[in-house]
Amino acid sequence: GTGSPVMLRLANSMEKGTCMRVHTGSPMPEKSDAVVMMEDTVLSGDKVEIFAQIHPFKNVGAIGEDVQKGEIILNRGRLLRPCDIAVLASLGIGNIKVFKRPLVVIIPTGEELAPRGKKNLADGEVYETNGLMSALYIRKWGGIPRLLDIVTDSPEKIKEAIISNPDADMILTSGGTSVGKRDFVPAVVGSLGKLLVHGVGISPGKPTALGIINGKPVLCMPGYPVAGIVALFFYGKAAFRRLGHVPNEPERIVRAVLSGKITGRTGYKTFARVKIDNGIAIPLATTGAGILSSVSKADGFVIIPENIEGRNAGEEVEVVLIE
Question: From 2.70.40.10, 2.40.340.10, 3.40.50.150, 1.10.287.130, which CATH number describes the 253-321 domain?
Answer without folding.
Answer: 2.40.340.10
